[in-house]
């Protein structure tokens, strides 16, 4: 919904009545798609081509001419050519003098060339005003106009007037324009269409790895063990029971992995006695993907909730209900039918902590939506993400402890001497919570705060300027 | 949170100390609301009226004078008059020479006039700088200041300076300004307040139609049939059981309707051998409402999930549990109490596919939030919406197949020779998935890719420019 | 993703190759953090300090000199000093003549000083171009670059060129720039980092108050009463059963509190016969926090749903299932095992209304996301928030009535002569719905509409301008 340029279209809006001609260099797909779209928006379009008479089918109503002729006929030239073919433009420098060149090109992969295509173009034709634009749009969009994720046109360039002209055209095509500043931003714009969730790769790998590991681990512990020992086949458990053991485990571990780097960083700063030395790279990278880790953890928690809630619907469970011996997935030891108040307490707190934890989880997820987090001041954001985040971690860990309770005492919990899954997944969160607790101790907290306010063990700063951060 | 203009308020911020006077033409509701608001923000306000002495109650502290006198007293004039009464402004042209005229008017319905009100105004007073602004706000907002959905003021005009002046005023009133470019955008701004979910109409009609049809269909099949044949009244099923059969059916059909047009389009392109011919209108319209279809499908899926999860809470079900003969909504055939492992497999996979499908469903919904989809490159967006979308469709279809399983074999499934609902709702998704599968076959895929890259069966394009899209 | 300035970086992008020097006044934490970041972005940094030779550790590669010397060396000066120490800048006025001064300071609390720091600075050095910027960022961000909630740099100032220069720097640092207009906006920017959910305070207090009250009320009614009378300990109910009684109660009350002020306002306008008199402050304040009230209500409803859905998982319930006497939380009176169709109807409609109510609830929550509500016209937004809002309230109230049904007839529902919770929570919503119904009566509706369109009982406005709002 944002449009961000200052329009300079002349007061006598002749532009609206009699369309100025636009020129497109290159009759490839992009050129034709763009031309078609421009025609539909009421522009006159002229193509510049190497061989104007055999350049394939062009949108009806447009004509093709030599590059130089086409350039002369319009003030705005779209360069829909591969960067490899740019060099010939150098010879057109005189005709392109003072023209606005719109570079729409993308590369097949990142860092293919030392400089951005647009900067290269500017170097070739110094007299022209190069504007990088439209390259973040799909050809489908260029042909058919804006759609959901394709409403925004990013542009950058060194000449304000040139950008305004391009922006004007873009809005006429129905797009929303976002000015990204000078041509130095061109590389960023050219890399944008190439990215496919770069910051999600690492967290996804971690998630997949953990899931696979625990799946096989529990498969062996539960299904295979039962088959080998008792000889009865409970492989159907793979679908729900196992999934519902793996998902919460992965979710809890990943949630704690969001908060581990922060704790490590704090101890590192305490140890170094300063905050002015950079962290090791692995820690930096880790910190940068905390948001993604958290969101994946939320996804797993969400699945865990659904898997838990459909338990009563399972044939397996319904079938059990009808029999004298009631055995349930969660609390296996309870076979006596006498009412045990302590058990009721435990079962209910187990469920409550889980629900409250999940509720906070969802809240964290909502605040990490771009539009929500942008509306928050960083004080509010850090309050939610750190204070509420640790509360979430605490609830979920408690939830797991209540689940385990005294299971770890019974030898039956250690088939083939393997630890139960919930014990394994409790390690990291417990460590994080303990470390965080240590950091909250007055002595630790005080010196950490001082360090974060710029204090340096080696030499103190004059007070007048120190507490500026407070 | 965005404000998008370059402020030009003078360096000596006299503006802040001694308010410049603003003029409002028209003492109607809008005029008074606006005036009140301006006063509260510390402006001096002067009204221009046809009959200054009998123009109804004005906000205290303002005075009314003749239009010409008022015009002279201020550099900025808000036109709070109906378009029908604009004509008299022509006579004021000399006094309005060089003034900034803010057109806040809206029309009662779209396309009432050949040109936008603001453009009409500009034509009447060519010497003035017309700016379209504030018309997207409710009068309530104009009177009481920004509220949630009313934070943004869209403006457009041909003079940058004029727009900056208006923008400055708007920010002083606490609004966020979005520049929509030249006056040509006025029509768009004037149509904005009139729209009431235009792009939702068709999908909503489809949803309502499908729901109504299946409701009655199942009502006859289940409730009425039982009543006629066995004579017992199970009308209470309408509330939950029936709803929980209808919602998933509608959801699945609508989800597949999101992906059907894409498949049709692909086959159309293959058949035509080019992508440069426009699709038939019905297909275009269909494609444009895919997002809304999907979101409605998600809503129905959401209800289906809730309806399913509360099944154990139903008196009807709880009552059954206490009786020897346990019959359940989902798996009626299972009356034997011997444990059937195959049945367990089926029931669990049925539930799992449902959960995973719903999880992906929700993911698709989240990525279609404006702020999220804007943060995605079109490559990421299309990956999510198409790849994950088809996966979702696949899971949900599988979920339904597992639900049906071998029901269709039993004659009892065909009361009055009618097909079960789940069979009817499987038709469309199956077709879509099969067609999609065909498109993924190497031969099809290859030629489709070539067409999408601009290849044309009639005549090939030179390679140099072709693969620009890849 | 938005950047909003017009770049003016010179055509020959020398800036990119040979970095211009930037000057930082103040070697405190903020100064050093900022300097470090600027260095990493390829700028040359010069510090101005009172005692250049003993100003603590500076980032390697920077040098410290006297304020005046530093000022001369750069065109852009970051003022990283406390406002208390600004006064000495007055003496530097000649050296700072024409320079761009970036005021990054914040105060420890609001309204500490009569004027904004930036405005004070401008007054001290009238010859310089003061720009307020970067103050909304955390020092962590200034040191380590943009992160999620810290991508945006708000700036304001009276000189467009000065703002462009700062904006250019900010984008080079990887930030997104939002221009907030002239220096008059400085105070707003300075207050921004201090706020911690101001508009959430009141709603949160209400929520906590209501929750606490009903918790204790039901604790006495249910747990303590049972213990005193029958002597058996059902304290475990606190965890789930009680919570699941309190949350829906609070949720319904808070939802109705969203709509009560609107109804009161309407009656007030009807009584006064005009809309041009301001509402009492308490009503204004109330209306301003309706959104927050609604979102909290949604949160409670969400918890209620989860608590309800896990009921079958509770040990307490599972334990009951295995016994002849089945008694459930929701419908206690049903101990007979004969199937009661009326009861089935009631139980199912009770669940259905709850689900549909919750579904609409969620829809309301989604439309109040900033990015969604910004995409809606105010007509659409008010349609959703008022029409659908009342429908939600209606469903939830009906849900509660169906829950209560004829309980209120049985004396056992009044232990110690206390009313059941659901009766208490039905009061407000019922009142709201009744009042709203009255307002929908033709006579009321007509006169209210006329008042809202600017009609005034004292004196009518001429029709020509009245219906401008319609």
From TrEMBL, chains A, B, C:
<feature type="transmembrane region" description="Helical">
    <location>
        <begin position="248"/>
        <end position="271"/>
    </location>
</feature>
<dbReference type="GO" id="GO:0006826">
    <property type="term" value="P:iron ion transport"/>
</dbReference>
<dbReference type="GO" id="GO:0010008">
    <property type="term" value="C:endosome membrane"/>
</dbReference>
<feature type="transmembrane region" description="Helical">
    <location>
        <begin position="388"/>
        <end position="405"/>
    </location>
</feature>
<feature type="domain" description="Ferric oxidoreductase">
    <location>
        <begin position="249"/>
        <end position="384"/>
    </location>
</feature>
<dbReference type="GO" id="GO:0005886">
    <property type="term" value="C:plasma membrane"/>
</dbReference>
<dbReference type="InterPro" id="IPR028939">
    <property type="entry name" value="P5C_Rdtase_cat_N"/>
</dbReference>
<dbReference type="Pfam" id="PF01794">
    <property type="entry name" value="Ferric_reduct"/>
</dbReference>
<keyword id="KW-1133">Transmembrane helix</keyword>
<keyword id="KW-0813">Transport</keyword>
<keyword id="KW-0274">FAD</keyword>
<keyword id="KW-0812">Transmembrane</keyword>
<keyword id="KW-0410">Iron transport</keyword>
<feature type="transmembrane region" description="Helical">
    <location>
        <begin position="206"/>
        <end position="228"/>
    </location>
</feature>
<keyword id="KW-0406">Ion transport</keyword>
<dbReference type="InterPro" id="IPR051267">
    <property type="entry name" value="STEAP_metalloreductase"/>
</dbReference>
<dbReference type="GO" id="GO:0052851">
    <property type="term" value="F:ferric-chelate reductase (NADPH) activity"/>
</dbReference>
<dbReference type="InterPro" id="IPR036291">
    <property type="entry name" value="NAD(P)-bd_dom_sf"/>
</dbReference>
<keyword id="KW-0479">Metal-binding</keyword>
<feature type="transmembrane region" description="Helical">
    <location>
        <begin position="417"/>
        <end position="441"/>
    </location>
</feature>
<keyword id="KW-0560">Oxidoreductase</keyword>
<dbReference type="InterPro" id="IPR013130">
    <property type="entry name" value="Fe3_Rdtase_TM_dom"/>
</dbReference>
<dbReference type="GO" id="GO:0046872">
    <property type="term" value="F:metal ion binding"/>
</dbReference>
<keyword id="KW-0186">Copper</keyword>
<keyword id="KW-0967">Endosome</keyword>
<keyword id="KW-0285">Flavoprotein</keyword>
<feature type="transmembrane region" description="Helical">
    <location>
        <begin position="292"/>
        <end position="310"/>
    </location>
</feature>
<dbReference type="Pfam" id="PF03807">
    <property type="entry name" value="F420_oxidored"/>
</dbReference>
<keyword id="KW-0408">Iron</keyword>
<protein>
    <recommendedName>
        <fullName>STEAP family member 4</fullName>
    </recommendedName>
</protein>
<dbReference type="GO" id="GO:0008823">
    <property type="term" value="F:cupric reductase (NADH) activity"/>
</dbReference>
<feature type="domain" description="Pyrroline-5-carboxylate reductase catalytic N-terminal">
    <location>
        <begin position="22"/>
        <end position="107"/>
    </location>
</feature>
<keyword id="KW-0472">Membrane</keyword>
<feature type="transmembrane region" description="Helical">
    <location>
        <begin position="355"/>
        <end position="376"/>
    </location>
</feature>
<comment type="similarity">
    <text>Belongs to the STEAP family.</text>
</comment>
<dbReference type="GO" id="GO:0015677">
    <property type="term" value="P:copper ion import"/>
</dbReference>
